[in-house]
Amino acid sequence: MTGTSEGAGAVTATPAAGVEMPAEAPLHGLGVSLPSADAPAKTEGTFPYAADLWAEGLLWAAVLRSPHPRARILSVDTKHAAEMPGVRVVVTHEDVPGDAGHGRGTADRPVFAKDEVRHHGEPIAAVAADHPDTARLAAAAIAVEYEVLEPVTDPQLAFEAEPLHPDGNLIRHIPLRFGDADAMGEVMVEGLYRIGRQDPAPIGAEAGLAVPRPDGGVEIYTASTDPHTDRDLAAASFGLTPEQVKVVVTGVPGATADREDPGIQLPLGLLALRTGCPVKLAATREESFLAHAHRHPTLLRYRHHADADGKLVKVEAQILMDAGAYADTSADALAAAVSFACGPYVVPHAVVDGWAVRTNNPPSGHVRGEGAMQVCAAYEGQMDKLAAALGLDPHEIRLRNVMATGDLLPTGQTVTCPAPVAELLLAVKEAPLPELPKDAPEAEWLLPGGPEGAGEPGAVRRGVGYALGMVHMLGAEGTDEVSTATVKVSGSVATVICAAVETGSGFSTLARQIVQETLGVDEVHVAGVDTDQPPAGPACHGRHTWVSGGAVERAAKMVRTQLLQPLAHKFGMSTELLQISDGKITSYDGVLSTTVAEALDGKELWATAQCRPHPTEPLDDEGQGDAFVGLAFCAIRCVADVDIELGTIRVVEMTVAQDVGRILNPAQLRARIEAGVTQGLGAALMENLRTTRGQVRHPDLTGYALPTALDAPDIRIVKLVEERDVVAPFGAKPASAVPVVTSPAAVASAVRAATGRPIGRLPIRPQAAVAQVIQQ
Questions:
Q1: Three-class SS string for 308-353?
Q2: Cα–Cα dist 617/411, whole Å
């Protein structure tokens, strides 16, 4: 993959002609491509994942899961399982001593199903035994008598269906009204769009270890992304105080949603408390697919109005999100979908209705860009339709409508952060296009379908498509965003203590860079995360770069003041006249020059600080309110080759321009963008967890297709706009979510351009990419 970047600290894998490479950078600090501290352990296979944990006297757990998407439980007989040699205990809903319900957004999900199962794979019982095979056999020996019920799997039918849950089927309805609902445009286009169920598909399936404590509590070792919330949920379920439960974060093999489901931790902790022994559970790949949350499948109906010049007049939309059996974070995902339903465009009038409903489908929850990705695919499809109706270039109609700083979202909120949307769009438009493939035999691998997988080269058409995407930063609608960090310095070593989980976002590397730059200390250690530390919140929406990084920076600056004040007082100057660089402290006039270690003189300095962004507010009854702290934007141009006879698609190149605020680690930023684009590519072309009447088909990595290195196109990063957001601690913006949101829409746009077909469904089916009339 190749690419170029503009701005300080820009990185190029292969510099283009005339591109001036940046001067040699310092060895540490912000703006440097500092490698991840855990990279050697991960590449050598010594990284401590939860599946590798061990403890003396270890027992193994297994969970019995429902084979039905909906059924009434008539009886559960655990006698035969409990009597099997090696089995220590079998637990069901009757053994849950505390709150029976749990959930991230709403506590509506039982630890174990009681009277009714509501989705395929819902936990019914759990077993602890002295061997993993024994535990699995015992779980299979539990006899459950079901009365199978008709599942509700079409979210459109959920409105009239009988209640699937005591809280009803409707989780949330947001009616957004902005401007004049009766406004009309000279040109109107309509569209129906369907977005599939994308799975996070972690490299490592969920696992954990629970160890009972002498005080009657329990310690849970797992790959949590929000340990304090997991601790509180576990304590409530176990009937314990939060102080009696400790969650210790083990190595997280990346997280885009799957680590936020406590369905592993709760049975584990309960089994450990009942047996008095350490208990370990390593989920199978099938269990992983059945248990954790997926991207919300979404049905979207759109109507766009524009004037004769292509300027948008009004957007009408209906958005229906399938939450599956339980609420989870569906209310938050719906808020993002409704708020961004018009995209990064100026829209004077909007009428948008959004619903999130319960069904008997697999659970939905937080996945990168939730809500925003689904609507991006739809509103960009509408922009392509408007361009065709008006005879305009798809790039031009977007350029005529892009928003900028000072414009209003349809929620009535003013965009106060940098919004260089036009600049991003122009950057991808002006980038050179890739060369066309040759019709020679040696180049057949370039055709869609791979080697020998395509039809005739003459049936291949190239399409160029565009998409603009946006996401919000941090939590929304009044979420209290706060993080706490402690920085300690002793000798020539600094330590950062913060409960921000490293999920692959690069926070631990960023924390090292912040301390290196602020205190001039090369060796910086980031302590492991557990719930004995103050909370830092979940690892999503770029939170830890902003909130936790901000807390680390404040704590480091407090230590810096402690370090410099004695020297400043001794030499009769203010601390602002002293600087720290490369481990040395110098004054502006050169009179003072000493090392950080000498200034410390054997003392340990430390400080604790918090970072809390400005508050937001919930959307009101008309979808209005200042619900977001900030926004990030991305433009992508996709070049795709399509065999219009077979419907096979090869994405040749994705050209990216992104609004990043400030580049803190060039190599890490590039990796995050490339990963986001590739994840979006999967949603566009192959990733869809298929179900039949609510039952998951092929819950494995054979039946669920993922993009590999062979599927990844060239990803060219042609522009990174470094216009700092003044309210953010470093001015930086989240990097990975917005390319995930934008790239599926760009792929669909390119396939439309190649085939002339509407392309209203993601992932794109081969039959949808077959041109109705083959061009001459």
A1: CCCCEEEEEEEEEEECCCCCCCHHHHHHHHHHCCCCCECCCEEEEE
A2: 11
Quick one: tokens of 314? 């009004």
Sequence-distant (≥ 6) Cβ neighbours of residue 154 within 8 angstroms: 359
Encoded tokens for 544: 């830890």
According to DSSP, the residues that pair with 246 across neighbouring strands are 219
DSSP label at residue 545? I
Can you give the length of the chain in residues? 776
User: 585 and 564 in contact (C-beta within 8 Å)?
Assistant: yes
User: Could you tell me how many helices (H) and strands (E) the chain has, helices first?
Assistant: 16, 31
Sign of CA dihedral 223, 229, 232, 234: negative
Asked whether the beta carbons of 597 and 583 are under 8 A apart, the reply is yes
Give the C-alpha distances (Å, rounded to integers) separating 747 from 465, 467, 736.
Answer: 7, 8, 17
> How far apart, in Å, are the Cα atoms of 29 and each of 34, 522, 558, 587, 666?
8, 9, 17, 20, 12
The residues pairing with 464 across neighbouring beta strands, listed in sequence order, are 639
Burial of 572 (0-12, 13-18, 19+ CB in 10 A): exposed
Question: Residue 608, exposed/middle/buried by CB under 10 A (0-12, 13-18, 19+)?
Answer: middle
Asked if 635 and 657 count as a contact pair (C-beta separation under 8 A), the reply is: yes
Spell out the residues 6+ positions from residue 220 whose beta carbon is closer than 8 angstroms to its own. 208, 209, 210, 211, 230, 231, 234, 245, 246, 247, 248, 265, 268, 269
Q: Where do we find the tokens 């997926």?
A: 294
Contact criterion met (CB below 8 Å) for 769 and 696: no
Question: What would the pLDDT profile of 148-205 be if each residue is shown by its tens digit?
Answer: 999 999 999 999 999 999 999 999 999 999 999 999 999 999 999 999 999 988 888 8
CA distances, 16 to each of 31, 432, 718 (Å) = 22, 11, 10
The reported pLDDT for the residue numbered 596 is 82
**Contact by Cβ (8 Å): 105, 331:** yes
> Taking a C-beta distance cutoff of 8 angstroms, is the pair 342, 410 a contact?
yes
Name the token pair of 575. Answer: 């601390």
Which residues sit opposite 91 in a β-bridge?
A: 126
Q: Taking a C-beta distance cutoff of 8 angstroms, is the pair 720, 7 a contact?
A: yes
Closest CA to 466 of 746, 715, 46, 185: 746
> What is the Cα–Cα distance from 555 to 151, expressed in whole angstroms?
53
Q: Which residues of 288-311 are buried (b: 16+ CB within 10 A; e: fewer)?
A: bbbbbbbbbbbbbebbbbbeeebe
Question: pTM of the full predicted structure?
Answer: 0.92
Tell me the pLDDT tens digit for each residue of 512-554.
999 988 888 888 999 999 999 999 888 888 888 889 999 999 9
For Cα atoms 176, 358, 158, give the angle at the middle one, nearest 5 degrees: 85
Q: Which two tokens stand for residue 749?
A: 């746009």
**49-93: pLDDT as tens digits:** 888 899 999 999 999 999 999 999 999 999 999 999 999 999 999
